[in-house]
């Protein structure tokens, strides 16, 4: 049997306006307890927190491409206004110009990289939506991942615009704040369970496409 996929999961560090980022917790959880028993036929797995820094995030993806060469890249980010797992259907090739990153830098409004105006997610989103709904986890659709670092990473990943970073399958999922406080749509445990379902279905789809 051919080797299974190499799987990368990313989240982000806290950023201005979000002193706590649940995707940072998710990455720590997946690093401390890698889900290899949950994911059959995976060659390698890595979970990484990305910097909220326009100048650094592209080079970091390139570094990950050279070091790890993922076949699947699933990117998670925080959108505190969403009510559950927000499945992003489209990466948009544009920056917003009104939000500084963690270094204080602003990007001029313009294109993220060479390529088309939009690119579709490569994840099996309909299967993911149905599985999360079956698990009684909140899930919603989106065609706009925003103009901040989340959309930037989504576009760079789908366009294979970072030297050495060229996953065959990639996509982006926004999540809400987690915890027991008012305004939190999910618990951390639900976040991890949903993320594992997304990983499982993405790996199954990769194996189907590669007849493993």
From TrEMBL:
<keyword id="KW-0378">Hydrolase</keyword>
<dbReference type="InterPro" id="IPR036440">
    <property type="entry name" value="Peptidase_C15-like_sf"/>
</dbReference>
<keyword id="KW-0788">Thiol protease</keyword>
<keyword id="KW-0645">Protease</keyword>
<keyword id="KW-0963">Cytoplasm</keyword>
<dbReference type="InterPro" id="IPR016125">
    <property type="entry name" value="Peptidase_C15-like"/>
</dbReference>
<protein>
    <recommendedName>
        <fullName>Pyrrolidone-carboxylate peptidase</fullName>
    </recommendedName>
</protein>
<comment type="similarity">
    <text>Belongs to the peptidase C15 family.</text>
</comment>
<dbReference type="Pfam" id="PF01470">
    <property type="entry name" value="Peptidase_C15"/>
</dbReference>
<dbReference type="InterPro" id="IPR000816">
    <property type="entry name" value="Peptidase_C15"/>
</dbReference>
């Amino acid at each position: 049997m051919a080797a299974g996929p190499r799987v990368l999961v990313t989240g982000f560090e806290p950023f201005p306006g979000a002193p706590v980022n649940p995707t940072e917790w998710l990455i720590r959880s997946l690093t401390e307890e890698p889900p290899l028993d949950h994911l059959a036929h995976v060659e390698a797995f890595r979970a990484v927190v990305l910097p909220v820094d326009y100048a650094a995030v592209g080079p970091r993806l390139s570094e990950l491409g050279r070091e790890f060469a993922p076949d699947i890249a699933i990117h998670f980010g925080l959108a505190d206004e969403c009510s559950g797992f927000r499945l992003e259907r489209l990466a948009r090739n544009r920056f917003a110009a009104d939000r500084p990153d963690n270094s204080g830098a602003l990007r001029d409004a313009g294109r993220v990289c060479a390529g088309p105006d939009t690119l579709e997610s490569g994840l099996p989103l309909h299967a993911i939506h149905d599985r999360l709904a079956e698990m009684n986890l909140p899930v919603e659709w989106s065609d706009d991942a925003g103009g901040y670092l989340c959309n930037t990473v989504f576009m760079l990943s789908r366009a294979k615009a970072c030297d050495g970073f060229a996953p065959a399958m990639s996509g982006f999922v926004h999540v809400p704040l987690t915890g027991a406080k008012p305004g939190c749509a999910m618990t951390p445990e639900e976040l991890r369970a949903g993320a594992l379902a997304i990983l499982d279905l993405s790996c199954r789809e990769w194996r189907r496409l590669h007849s493993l």
